């Protein structure tokens, strides 16, 4: 998010959507989106992306941009605390549930005592909800722009408050969550490019890691910072002053791009013993069967080059035209 070019900007929305498609990102939380759900939906339609994405959220501080196939897994929405907190619950296999909470922290929470107290109250408001869902054995993910660094070494600013840092660490530990980026990249350092926030302060580049994903430790697969065309000194500020934080987690299902469900293909019909014997002795049927077997073997190694519909349809057309017509209405094996 950020004030410079938000979801109110079609250029940024288009960029974000295509980034998600190219990077295989299925859920994105955008903070300071400066656009409500209705307006984002309209822009997606104008960009001809409305079939690929769904939008959730309330107000103009937080928005969820979700790939359509993943959005079908949402079974509940949560909205708390004056628009600074939003959540969704995803259903996985075997009754697996994951609560994903998006948070937009209080600006200045790392440097101002008043903002720090407000931030602590904001985080405290989440504890009952997270605790209740942990009792249900839900996985937990809390992500967003926290506006707090995980330690003094994660900011070039000399004004970072110890109280804010220690409270964030205590909050995370009490709930049994772990920082996905630091867990998966223990050698991460500010100097090696692990920062999500950059700005010019008094003609000096000020860098911080303010965006986090705190997750149940047993579902983390990976995490990284996605360099966006904004954020670091020398890059445009058209889109934002933050880089994106990406996490790879196990939600109990494998998201796949939505594809039309094709009708079942009839590839084996029921024959009488006499008909089956005739087919076994028919050279055309035997030849067609051998071709089908060869094509199926090829499909095991190069599936994208093989059209199973065509294979089975050709075989049926050659081998059983009369029988197929007679067997309409009978049981068939389909794939």
Structural class: alpha+beta
Amino- and carboxy-terminal Cα gap: 45 Å
Biggest sheet: strand arrangement? 4-5-6-7-11-8
Number of separate strands = 15
What would you call the shape? elongated
What characterizes the major β-sheet?
6 strands, mixed
Uncertain spans, ≥5 residues at pLDDT below 50?
1-5, 257-273, 319-335
Radius of gyration using CA atoms only: 27 Å
List SSEs in N-to-C order. HEHEEHEEEHEHEHEEEEEEHHHHE
User: Roughly what is the average pLDDT, rounded to an integer?
Assistant: 77
Number of helices: 10
Strand content: 15-25%
The residue fraction in helices comes out at: 25-40%
Oligomer: single chain
Give structural notes.
With 335 residues, the chain is of the alpha+beta class. It is built from ten helices and 15 strands. It has helices at residues 10-23, 37-46, 68-71, 113-135, 162-174, 180-184, 273-281, 283-301, 308-319, 321-326, and strands spanning 27-31, 53-56, 62-67, 74-80, 85-91, 97-104, 139-145, 178-179, 197-201, 204-208, 211-215, 220-226, 244-249, 266-269, 332-334. A six-stranded mixed β-sheet has the order 4-5-6-7-11-8. A three-stranded antiparallel β-sheet has the order 1-3-2. The longest helix is centred in the middle third of the chain and has 23 residues, at 113-135. Residues 1-5, 257-273 and 319-335 have low confidence and may be disordered.
């Amino acid at each position: 998010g950020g004030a410079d070019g938000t979801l109110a900007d079609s250029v940024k929305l288009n960029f974000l959507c295509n980034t998600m498609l190219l990077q295989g990102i299925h859920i994105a939380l955008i903070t300071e989106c400066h656009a409500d759900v209705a307006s984002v939906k309209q822009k997606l339609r104008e960009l001809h992306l409305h079939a690929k994405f769904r939008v959730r959220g309330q107000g103009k501080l937080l928005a969820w941009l979700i790939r359509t196939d993943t959005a079908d897994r949402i079974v509940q929405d949560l909205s708390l605390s004056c628009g600074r907190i939003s959540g969704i619950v995803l259903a996985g296999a075997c009754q697996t549930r994951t609560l994903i909470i998006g948070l937009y922290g209080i600006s200045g929470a790392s440097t101002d005592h008043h903002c720090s107290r407000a931030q602590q109250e904001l985080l405290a408001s989440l504890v009952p909800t997270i605790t209740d869902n942990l009792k249900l054995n839900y996985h937990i993910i809390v992500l967003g722009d926290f506006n707090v660094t995980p330690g003094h070494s994660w900011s070039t600013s000399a004004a970072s408050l110890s109280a804010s840092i220690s409270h964030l660490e205590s909050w995370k530990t009490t709930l049994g969550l772990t920082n996905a980026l630091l867990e998966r990249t223990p050698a991460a350092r500010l100097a090696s490019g692990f920062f999500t926030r950059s700005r010019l302060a008094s003609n000096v580049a000020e860098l911080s890691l303010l965006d986090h994903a705190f997750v149940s430790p047993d579902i983390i697969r990976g995490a990284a910072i996605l360099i966006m065309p904004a954020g670091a000194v020398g890059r445009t500020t058209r889109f934002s002053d933050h880089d994106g934080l990406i996490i790879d987690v196990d939600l109990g299902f494998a998201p796949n791009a939505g594809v039309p469900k094709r009708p079942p293909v009839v590839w084996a019909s029921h024959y009488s013993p006499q008909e089956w014997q005739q087919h076994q002795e028919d050279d055309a049927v035997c030849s067609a069967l051998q071709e089908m077997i060869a094509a199926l073997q090829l499909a095991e190694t190069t599936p994208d080059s093989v059209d199973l519909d065509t294979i089975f349809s050709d075989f049926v057309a050659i081998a059983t035209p009369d029988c197929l017509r007679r067997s309409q209405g009978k049981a068939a094996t389909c794939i």
